[in-house]
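Possible race condition, two jobs.
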Amino acid sequence: MNQRDQYPYNNQINRQAQQQRRPQTNAASSKRKPKLKSTTKTFKSTKQPSRRHSPKKRFKKVLQLIGLLLGLSVGLLLYIYQSYGAAEIPLKIHKTNIVEENLTTYDLTPVADQFWSQSIMLSELGGKQRTLAYLDPQQRLAPASLTKILTVWVALENNEDLDQVVSIDLDVYLDMVEENASMAGFYGYEEVTVRDLIYGTMLPSGGEAAGTLALVTSGSEANFVALMNEKARSIGMYDSHFMNPVGLDHPDQYTTAADLTKLVRAACQDPDFYAVFSAPTYVSTENENHPEGVYMENSVIRAERVYELMPRSCSIVAGKSGITDDAGRCWASIIRKNNVDYIAITLGAPMYMDDPPVQLVDTAEVAKYLPSRFFSAEVP
């Protein structure tokens, strides 16, 4: 008899337990099968987006691409309009023989009543040296103190020691007082340096400085004037002639806006000249007459800062003014716009308009013809 036969009660209990466990096992397994199917479906659904974008997302990307192309097209159209739309203005546009390359310029004659000056020229300082706008630029007019641009340039080329001490010539000083010329502020016999004379000639347009500078450089005014005319011819100023280094009125002292443009462009290639031409202020060497030196200020740069008439993004960074009865009010200035420099010459504005200076008014008006960007013109 085996052990199970000895305990029949236990065998019955075991059989009942086995019967009870079977349905539990079947129920449990039947409940787990749907979970397997559900898990499999979830697994497949999470993998599907990684292999392929949904139609909605593809449509969104197409819309973004179309928007980008439209934006680029609009930007290109705006650029073309700004670049070439200026050709529709009612100004006379033609090829000019003023510049070497026959480039297109704006003849301001149809709108001459918008300017005070008799003659105007606006051109690039460097680069292709294009003429951008002009009004009777070859008319011969008195240059007034714009003469001193040439005076300073010739003096710089013929004086090696700018710290040399010299005296203000008394006869020159007295002549300038008699002529009621503009003065730098030096006295007769006052000891100054050649550098003081150069800045005194340019910034405050001092007649005593210019006259003394001519004597120091060449020994006589006549010799210095000969150097001036020789220099003028060497750079193509064939419509100009000078009789004195100060700019005093004389029938044979004349120039044109076109010639002055050549002068400014050539002189500004000399770093020493440009340093003087663009200096806002200067203080002369201290001496017995002026223990603190003579304070000088560039009248062109000062006027631009005081009246604030220049168009947006334009500023005057260098210049020389001139005023006489015959010449009227004259300016030669360097206008800077978008880091590009331009020469602006205005001649023959009336004397009675000085607040604001009509030279500044005309310079600000002609500056509206400067390019808004390279190779495109911005006009009023």
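Job #2 (started ~2 s after job #1):
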Amino acid sequence: MKTRLAKRWIYYLTVSVIIAALVLLALPSVQKAIERAKEEMRPNKNQVVESEQMPAPEENGQPQKPAHYEKIAENDRLELQFRSSDSAIAVIDKSNGYRWESAVPLQDVETDGNELWTASSQSIFHLTYTDPHLPALETQETNFALEQPKMTTTSLENGISVRYELPRLKISFDMSFQLKGNALEVTVPGQSIQEGEDNWLMSVAPLPFFGAASDHDQGYAVYPDGPGALSYFKTNHPNYLNPYRAGVYGADTITFNFFGREQNAMLPIFGLKVGDNSFMGIITQGEYDANILYSPSGYLINLNRVSSELVYRREYEAVKKDGNLTKKPEKDLIREDHTIRYVFFSGKEADYSHMATAYREYLLDEQGVVPKVKKGEAVPFGLDLLMGIKKDQILIDHFIQNTTFSEAQDMMEDLSQRGVQSISANLLGWTGEGYMSYPSGYKPSRKLGGTSGLAKLSEYAKSKNYQLFLQDNYVEAWKGNDGFSSRKDVVVGANHFVVTDRYSELFYLNAGKQNAHFQKKVLNPLRKLGITGINFDGIGSQLYYDYNDEYPLKRGGWIQPEAFLPPVRHPDGGQRLLLYRRNDSVLPNGAAWHYSLFGRSAKSILRSTAAVPKDGGIRLYAILPINDEPL
């Protein structure tokens, strides 16, 4: 009995000694890990800007109050102030003294003790980055307050430029703030960006809390969901799980999601109205690589804010060794200049109609857009006619004729007799392939009346001074249709694979190759028909990168006329091009764009209060009839 007890005590003692030894061995590593974690969480004094531009901690460990704002620029309408301690800015509207600040006044911040978001609301920028060495893409977000970057300032005419150096991430970039009339321009030069090997820049969001409004403020946010949406501030609201985040002119990747509700920013704009003051933000440079962010009160913090997010690196799907796909960051940085213009309004002008006017004037004065709606001019009656469509069958598809060319003429004549003086007719499915079967060719369907029937319809339209357009899609292509190669003539992704749906049925045509085909095979036969023009379905509805070896294109390249759009000329010398389901990326390319069909309502997950077109008076709108619940 005593022997067993002795052995048991020896066993316990041995185990205790081993555990104690392991603890002693691990203790230094644990202590180092704790110190390293504390060091990462503690602001580094070595990261503080030169010349005491950041406040030093007091003896009790609490930071000093930020430095006072100093006036650095002024014009007849605005005054620009700068705070050297954290580069915060303030814009004073001299018409009424209202103050727009990038850092939310601390007394207005309701964070329920959340120090992280209190610091975030004071930051001049938010930034996302990634570690390229990870097996899959993981983005992390940080901000000025967390990084405490080193700053170097340079005086500019009507403003200031600040260089931010983030030692922990080894990322640096410039950001300038300059007054321009009744506006503030914020610019991030692409060539100023530097990054290290271990942390790659993904995006920068300048002035994320500029003019942020509380629950007690009266007003609304403007964001470009559909033709434009308003979201009024509310004192009673839920806690939102996600903000509105949408790529300007659409996502940069093709998802082939025909049933989901995509969040696309159709215009490069955003705005905020607070009381009797408002601003309209316009991304005037680099808009093709940017997002619009709207965070209502209730998303992480009780502040309504809207801003832009500048994209500097895209992601793509890479193939792993096991054959599975994973997201990875692209190697090359998008070195593009970005400029955001904030136009300010006060008093009776502080409403969405004046915001829309500011965007309209920008398009007319700086982008060369010519208005197609002239004062006193009759608005044409928009007439969409479904001509024919194919029904899938086992052996041979059956072409169903819905409206022949002669029947289309009868309809137009009937409308004329009923008093309709101006008609803009649009023919869908006019070729032998029928509607929504692409490439559809260029020969009018014989079952609809053939080339002679379409020519007679065109002559009738010209005699009545009516417009006659042929709608077709030169962007999409379906497997089994003639006129394209599914290997050489299509869009290629960053992973060098052809972009297609999961069934390899639907493809997107490379713009450069399709333009050459259009000029050679399609344009001349259509010219002989004497039609008014072509309605391009699909162009402008999405912008994306194409890594096709022969004709690579950036997002902005999709809207360049020489990249895709052919010079279709009307006998009167004017261009006659229509665009169906498109965004405003194509507007700057001349007088061609004068007609638009919007088949979507402005309803995001945030339940916008109203839809407001932002370019009224520039082109005509035709709203597709849809079944939808009231906004």
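Confidence is low (pLDDT under 50) at residues 36-64, 558-577, 585-609, 623-631.
Logs attached separately.
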